[in-house]
Amino acid sequence: MLLQICDILPRERPGVLACCNPIPPLVRQYLNEIHTIIMKAREAPLTKVHNFEKEWVYCFLHFCWSQDI
């Protein structure tokens, strides 16, 4: 349910409820707050996530190449 809300990021309050089946009482109780958080998330700019795995592989391959392994 939470992953579905995060994936869809519904624009309206009924959309939040549509992601839940059954609808938990706390979701009903805090629907306005949840909707506000979702709207802020929609407005926030996307940021680039650093991919340490790629960097590690690059460093490892560079090391192996420089050592003639």
From TrEMBL:
Domain of life of the organism encoding this protein: Eukaryota
One term of GO molecular function: nucleotide binding
SUPFAM superfamilies, per database record: HRDC-like
Name under which the protein is recorded: Uncharacterized protein
